[in-house]
Amino acid sequence: MLFRSPTTCFRWRHRLAGALRQRPEGVAGYVEVAEATIAESRKGQRTLGRMPRRRGTGRIAMWPAQVRIAFLVDRMGGATHASFSATPSGSPEIERAIGQSLGWGATLVTTRGYLSPWGTLARRRGGAFIDAREANPGDLAGVTRASECRESFGTWLRRFRGIATKYLDNY
Fold first, then answer.
1. Residue 15: is its pLDDT beyond 60?
2. Residue 4, exposed/middle/buried by CB under 10 A (0-12, 13-18, 19+)?
C-alpha cells in the first residue's frame, strides 16, 4: 500500500476526475435535430436598436424578432446547440452557428424536409439526411432525445421569464 500526503491525493483525484469529465466536444454519427423558436430578448442592454414601445395606445403590437435554437444530440450522449435568426438564409448560416460541432459525414435526423437547410448541410458535410416524418415507426429514426432536450430547455427557461438573446450560447 502506498501512502501519499493528503494534498497529493487531493490533487490526483481532481486531475483524474477532470480527465474523466472531459468529453469530446460536438456530435457525430447519428445526430437528431430539434428546433425551438423564442422571441429575441434584449434584457439589460442600454440601447435597444428600436423605438420604445408605447403602452395603452390601443395599437396592435408588432411581434418581436425571433431567434431559432437548434438542439443536436447524438447516440453516444454528445449534445450541442446553436442559435441563429428565425429566418435563416440557408445552410451557410446554420453551418456558421454550429461551427465545428458537427462531425464530418454525420447522419442528420430531423422533422424538416430533404430540401431544408438541414438536408443541405448534411449533403455539404458528406453525410446523410433522414426525414423523421417519413421513417417507419419501427426504425431508429426519430428525434425523441433532441425533443427531450428542447422541452427541458423550455421548462428551465420559463423559470427566468426569458434571458437575453446575446447570452443564449452560454446556456
1. yes
2. exposed
What contacts 97, CB < 8 A, 6 or more positions away? Answer: 70, 82, 83, 84
Condensed to tens digits (0 to 9), the pLDDT of residues 82-98 reads 888 777 667 778 888 88
CA dist., res. 163 & res. 132, Å (int): 31
Distance CA 125, CA 104 (A): 6
Instruction: DSSP for 48-79, please give it.
Output: -SSPPPPSSS-PPPPPPPEEEEEEEEETTS-E
C-alpha distances in Å from residue 12, one per residue of 3, 5, 22, 119 = 13, 11, 16, 46
Contact in structure between 38 and 113 (CB atoms under 8 Å)? no
Q: What does the block give as the cell for 42?
A: 434584449
Total residues belonging to the chain: 171
